[in-house]
Here is the input.
Amino acid sequence: MKKKVLLMLVLVISMVMYVGCSPAETVEEPAEDVEPQEEANADADSEPAAELEGDLVIYHAGSLSVPFGEMEAEFEEMYPNVDVLREPAGSRSCAKKISELGKEAHIMASADYTVIDNLLIPDFADFNVLFAKNEMVIAYSETSQYADEITSENWYEILLRDGVNYGHSDHNADPCGYRSLMVYQLAEDHYGIEGLEAELDAHCPEKNIRPKETDLLAMIETGTLDYFFIYRSVAVQHDLPFVELPEEINLSSVDFTDFYATATVEVAGSEPGQTITQVGKPIVYGVTIPKNTPDEALSVAFINYLLDRDKGLAIMDKNGQPVLDPLVVYGEENLNEGIAIEK
Here is the structure.
């Protein structure tokens, strides 16, 4: 009996030792308690966004106000610590704030890419990205005189009628202004009407000429103006009816580049007493980073956002300003580090 008890005791001790020496069973933690790799990667990707902060100053053409306003909201959502400060004006005025007044900006976007070429490069900027296009139209309101009569064929006859008020922006401050004067010149040649340019110019009083094209919107709304020369995109964005002009004179088509070049307008240069001859060409927008940018990282981040076909360029297209395909870059070798352009 004692032997049996002793034997059983030995067996029990042996089993306990076996269990104690066996490897413990691995218990998996619930999946939700483990940080997914994708989430970790997302956090890593978001780190640069957290580093961007401060004011982002953008000088831009008045005709970019609507799309850039939408970009402002989206960019600030992407980078909560960034405050986008936009200053719309005539493109030449924007450039002169940098070149003549020494003001700092992170971005400068022009309604005429040659403004950047002529007034900023090489002293104040190193490159120029051509990214969107437009065309000239004549906008009006439902209450404008002869609104039910004006067409693409008789527009100049309507404008020259007694009592009709029309206007355009200042050619020394804004590309839309000198492009309006180019339309006068091209129309005279296109329609073969001698003296038409001079008549159209004389019939538009000084009070109907404003610093930038968007200043004329209020004059249309109040009835001060019946018609004004403007970019198609601005008319579309503000739900204004407009007269389409023939491609031969609306500065929209590369097919008429040579004919557009027959129109020239003298504008004030960067130095007192200096003038620059603006030559007619298809309407193409340009953007650059000024050399005096207060924060290069902010500038690069916005340029990349603007030139992304799923972000900034999609907003441009949605607002009636078709984007170039492919994008054109002048001074590509001088692009700031970090700029990624998908042409």
